[in-house]
From TrEMBL:
Protein name: Origin recognition complex subunit 1
Region named Disordered: 171-230, 295-323, 335-437
Compositional bias segments (type: Polar residues): 211-221
Subunit structure, interactors included: ORC is composed of six subunits. Component of ORC, a complex composed of at least 6 subunits: ORC1, ORC2, ORC3, ORC4, ORC5 and ORC6. ORC is regulated in a cell-cycle dependent manner. It is sequentially assembled at the exit from anaphase of mitosis and disassembled as cells enter S phase. Interacts with CDC6 and KAT7/HBO1. Interacts with LRWD1 predominantly during the G1 phase and with less affinity during mitosis, when phosphorylated.
Gene Ontology molecular function: ATP binding; ATP hydrolysis activity; chromatin binding; DNA replication origin binding; metal ion binding
Compositionally biased spans, kind Basic residues: 400-410
Domain BAH: 46-169
Keywords linked to the UniProt accession: ATP-binding, DNA replication, DNA-binding, Magnesium, Metal-binding, Nucleotide-binding, Nucleus, Phosphoprotein
TM ranges: none
Subcellular locations according to the entry: Nucleus
Physiological role: Component of the origin recognition complex (ORC) that binds origins of replication. DNA-binding is ATP-dependent, however specific DNA sequences that define origins of replication have not been identified so far. ORC is required to assemble the pre-replication complex necessary to initiate DNA replication.
Top-rank taxon, per record: Eukaryota
Length: 814
């Protein structure tokens, strides 16, 4: 197939042709029939119309997405152009393990109709590349030889599970006529209520009476009461009004003729005329609304399930209701003719015999008819209910009917929606369009500088990487266990280095260079209780759920008993300081299990404090940890500059002075590489959306300074700068106590001791305990500190709600 270029290489302009064919006022959308595509360098425009098969931009330039265009519209703003499509899939888009279900080799120009309800069918109209010819061929036919390479063929349907034969009704080729949009359809014809037989009979009797009055002789039977005369006059008015509408609807004329006294019809004639009328009406409606009328042979067998789909359901029901009603009325007439010896007039032979309930409902219909055409729909509903004869039922049957359905459900009914399985796994639907690629250098740099982006290498940590690699590799090769304690301030690459070591070891295990091992990672920050570490380790090892105590017993048994073919387990424990408990049994077990003979467990622990074992661990826990320790020093400005340069990977987006300014600022404060990456990303955003760009188009000094001000001038920093002197001293005391303990939490008594010491160093009068509690409460009300609720004493637990770097930056600026 010819090569289709995407929008990144060729500039295209899109324009909706003509006026809107219809509008949706609720959704504020305007629908169009065609779209023109103008390509720079080409004199002619490509026009894509609704119903054609189109090509849509994708990742593969040689094989763009194929779809059939169903709708073209603009959104509520009128600026964005949208399209609704039916998707096709190529062989390359089907999973490789599913292609074998086809049972043959796919044709290079073959595509498949895609049937998946979870796939989004609304796309941006500006991703359309042009039209393409798609031809449907029967499943048993051979692919034509010598066909154009731009022609695609479709035979089968793919529903993400199996290939099935494509029904011709699902896919209509662009040459076949399509139904117009809903707004173009002809308005529905409002059906008039069926004329009541008693009213028509009286109207005809009144006409004959007037003819006899011309001789000047009035018969005694023609004298009626005033009430009867008023009813007769109302019926005449109704009759005249209905006859005035007969000329616009031939169906009404024939229905009125059924009750006329000059025409006597048999049962077969009545049924034939009614069914012919319904057939003509359906054909007219089908022609106006875009349906395909069925032949007369199909109409005669319309009750068959195979042909019922060609006729609208409402018309089929109405035809069946009319035919059943006529049969019942004719049966009643035949029974009355046999019972009555006197007989009836010729004009009454073809009329219906209404019941008392019908007469009451017909009078109601006459009153409603006089109110105007606005209530015609209500009259139609009442007339349909009233004309059907009703057999009186007993009270017991009525009560039973409320519980028992009137009709037994058919065995051929459509299958119901399958029930959701008990353990349903949620899944993210497949993306209909590929992720947007960066359009310029700044966008590319912003993606590469994201913290979650995995770099190709970890610069400035080569020695630490090699030490951790050698330690874990030796334990896996020997089949023994051990512990290593890794410390360092936040943002120095501790976790990233360990993950890189594990990835390298897993690649070596896949190549059979070292034995296979299991890797498990837990984080103390993600646990509500330190004892949940047992539950997570057991679940990741054996996919078994248990309580904390039961999980600890199972792990104790697993790491103590020998087992054949046991693989080494590498356990990474991040944020170790948050697993501290009063008895320290969690830490003790984690460090004691690797010393067992048959454990084959390697534990790597990470914390932010270098001397954490000496500060918070008791002797028996610190002895189990051992002396294998590693410290990650904060990054210098040269190392930070090298990290950013390696992330950009020859993408020229920063000026040299701007890059050096960011590195020096962050290195002087904390040496956090994550903070440095965040500042650089924010600088690229400011440069991209700034109206005052530099002459080179790169991120300059002004953009970096603005990003630094935003990063270190948040609302928390502004609040810290606005606090009183005693409150600032209290914040400094909190940080000093955290560093002394190696934890992120302390009691008010411990912080108050540090606060008094700072007051003496600054030459200030130390505050009392009540004044210190008041200072602590004010900081908690500002949400700078997190205080223990429902407690106000010396054992009140205190935590920082902001990072320590922000507090130090705000206090250092003062």
């Amino acid at each position: 197939m010819s090569r289709y270029h995407t929008m990144l290489r060729i500039r295209r302009s899109y324009k909706l042709e003509g006026r809107p064919i219809t509008e949706d006022r609720k959704l504020k959308r305007a629908f169009y029939r065609s779209l023109s595509i103008a390509v720079d360098g080409r004199p002619r425009k490509a026009v894509v119309s609704v119903g054609q098969c189109i090509l849509i931009e994708g990742d593969d330039e040689d094989n763009p997405f194929v779809a059939q265009l169903l709708k073209l519209f603009t959104d509520d703003t009128g600026k964005k152009k949208k399209a609704v499509v039916k998707w096709f899939v190529r062989v390359s888009e089907i999973p490789s393990n599913k292609i074998g279900l086809l049972g043959r080799d796919p044709h290079p120009q073959e595509i498949f109709y895609y049937q998946d309800s979870s796939c989004d069918n609304e796309v941006d109209a500006e991703t359309i590349l042009g039209a393409v010819q798609v031809t449907q061929i029967p499943a048993e036919a051979q692919f034509p030889d010598g066909a154009s390479k731009d022609t695609l063929f479709v035979k089968l349907l793919w529903d993400t599970k199996a290939f099935r034969i494509l029904d011709t009704e699902l896919f209509q080729s662009p040459q076949s006529p399509r139904s117009p949009p809903p707004a173009q359809r002809a308005p529905r014809l409002r059906s008039l209520p069926t004329p009541d037989p008693s009213v028509m009979k009286r109207a005809m009797t009144g006409i004959a009476t007037r003819g006899s009055m011309s001789t000047g002789k009035i018969n005694s039977t023609e004298a009626e009461s005033a009430h009867s005369a008023s009813k007769l006059s109302a019926a005449k008015v109704l009759n005249v009004k209905r006859r005035s509408r007969v000329s616009s609807n031939p169906t009404i004329r024939k229905k009125l003729d059924l009750c006329s006294p000059s025409k006597k019809l048999t049962r077969d004639d009545v049924l034939g005329e009614i069914l012919d009328d319904d057939q003509e009406m359906e054909e007219d409606l089908a022609t106006k609304m875009g349906w395909f009328p069925t032949s007369s042979a199909e109409e005669e067998h319309e009750d068959s399930p195979a042909l019922s789909a060609a006729t609208p359901r409402s018309k089929r029901k109405s035809a069946q209701c009319v035919s059943s009603r006529i049969k019942k009325q004719l049966n009643m007439l035949s029974n009355q003719d046999e019972l009555q010896s006197d007989g009836e007039d010729a004009g009454d032979d073809g009329c219906f015999v209404p019941t008392k309930l019908d007469l009451e409902s017909s009078s109601d219909e006459e009153e409603e008819e006089m109110k105007g055409d606005s209530e015609d729909e209500l009259v139609v509903k009442r007339s349909r209910r009233s004309t059907c004869p009703k057999t009186p039922r007993s009270t017991e049957k009525r009560r039973a009917s409320a519980r028992t359905p009137r009709k037994t459900p058919s065995k051929k009914a459509a299958p119901s929606t399958p029930r959701t399985p008990l353990h349903a796994t949620p899944s993210i639907p497949a993306r209909s369009l590929p992720a947007r690629k960066p359009g310029n250098v700044l966008e590319e740099a912003r993606l590469r500088l994201h913290v979650s982006s995995v770099p190709e290498s970890l610069p400035c940590r080569e020695q630490e990487f090699q030490d951790i690699y050698n330690f874990v590799e030796s334990k896996v090769m020997d089949g023994t266990g051990g512990c290593m304690y890794i410390s360092g301030v936040p943002g120095t690459g501790k976790t990233a280095t360990v993950h890189e070591v594990i990835r390298s070891l897993q690649q070596a295990a896949e190549q059979d260079e070292i034995p296979h091992f299991n890797f498990i990672e837990i984080n103390g920050m993600k646990m509500t209780d330190p004892h949940q570490a047992y539950v997570q380790i057991l679940q990741k090892l054996t996919n078994q759920k248990a309580t904390a105590d039961h999980a600890a017993a199972l792990l104790e048994k697993r790491f103590s008993m020998p087992a054949p073919k046991k693989e080494t387990t590498v356990l990474l424990v991040d944020e170790l300081d948050l697993l501290w408990t009063r008895k320290q049994n969690v830490m003790y077990n984690l460090f004691d299990w690797p010393t067992r003979r048959h454990a084959r467990l390697v534990v790597l622990t990470i914390a932010n404090t270098m001397d954490l074992p000496e500060r918070i661990m008791i002797n028996r826990v610190a002895s189990r940890l051992g002396l294998t320790r590693m410290s990650f020093q904060p990054y210098t400005f040269k190392q930070l500059q090298q990290i950013i340069t390696s992330r950009l990977n020859k993408v020229k987006a920063f000026e040299e002075d701007a890059l050096q300014l960011v590195s020096r600022k962050v290195a002087a404060l904390s040496g956090d590489a994550r903070r440095c990456l965040d500042i650089c990303r924010r600088a690229t955003e400011i440069c991209e959306y700034s109206s005052q760009r530099s002459s080179t188009g790169l991120v300059g000094m002004s953009h970096v300074m603005e990003a630094l001000d935003e990063m270190f001038s948040s609302s928390y920093i502004a609040a810290i700068r606005c606090t009183s002197l005693q409150e600032q001293l209290f914040l400094r005391a909190v940080i000093a106590e955290f560093r002394r303990l190696g934890l992120e939490e302390a009691t008010f008594q411990q912080v108050f001791v540090q606060h008094q010491a700072l007051c003496r160093m600054e030459g200030l009068q130390p505050v009392s305990v009540s004044e210190g509690l008041a200072v602590c409460q004010r900081l908690g009300a500002c949400r700078l500190l997190l205080l223990e609720p429902s407690r106000l004493d010396l054992l009140l637990r205190v935590r920082l709600n902001v990072s320590q770097d922000d507090v130090l930056y705000a206090l250092k600026a003062d």
